[in-house]
Amino acid sequence: MSAPHSDNPVAGTSADDVQTVRRPLPLRPLCRTCGSENLARDAAARWDIAIQDWTITGLFDSTSCDDCGAESDDLAQWAPLQPGIGARVRILERPRVGGDRFRNREGTIVRTHFAGFYVRLDMTSRERTQKTELVETSHLEVLAPPYSCAG
Ligand SMILES: [Zn+2]
């Protein structure tokens, strides 16, 4: 795993730079039948003499749901986790006339909105008031949890 980007907000001079280093949202598997996240897969474990413990040596394709009992090789539906209140985020460049003045700014999510999240921006040395900006989820890079399961 590599993170070639810099945390310096002035690094990267084009929007393309920001897009290429974007970290994807973490995923979680949901039951295709009932939406539960209590999914399980069977695995084979063998005794490992060197570490003196059982280690998983094989994972079977079949997935089962603890809640509704469904079982299938294709039961898991992968859903991205959304950032939650308190998460640290970075604003990716948004299509704005004259450019996005908040591009690459970092902040903390303080409130949710149906179209995205309100981000309280970290103050720069030149700012005298704290700014809060509504940002669409697709233009946020999540830097640190928490994540929420909404959506
Ligand atoms: Zn289920």
Helix coverage percent of residues?
under 10%
What is the terminal separation in angstroms? Answer: 27 Å
Order of helices and strands: HEEEEEEEEEEEE
- Within the CATH hierarchy, at the fold level, what is the topology of the largest domain? SH3 type barrels
The structural class is mainly beta
How much of the polypeptide forms β-strand, as a percent range?
35-45%
Question: What is the highest CATH level, the class of the largest domain?
Answer: Mainly Beta
- Quick one: biggest sheet? 5 strands, antiparallel
- Low-confidence sequence ranges: 8-15
Short descriptors:
151 residues, mainly beta, SH3 type barrels, 2 domains, 5-stranded antiparallel β-sheet, 3-stranded antiparallel β-sheet, 12 strands, binds zinc ion
How would you sum up this structure, described in words?
The chain has two domains: 15-26 and 81-148, SH3 type barrels (Roll), CATH 2.30.30; 29-79, no CATH class. With 151 residues, the protein is mainly beta. Strand 2 (39-48) and strand 3 form a beta hairpin. It has one helix at 15-20, and strands at residues 27-31, 39-48, 53-65, 71-72, 76-80, 82-83, 88-91, 106-113, 116-121, 132-136, 140-144, 147-148. Helices cover 4% and strands 44% of the residues. Strands 10-9-8-7-11 form a five-stranded antiparallel beta sheet, with no helix packed on it. It is elongated, with a radius of gyration of 21 Å. Residues 8-15 have low confidence and may be disordered. The structure holds zinc ion. Zinc ion binds at residues 31, 33-34, 36, 65, 67-68, 70.
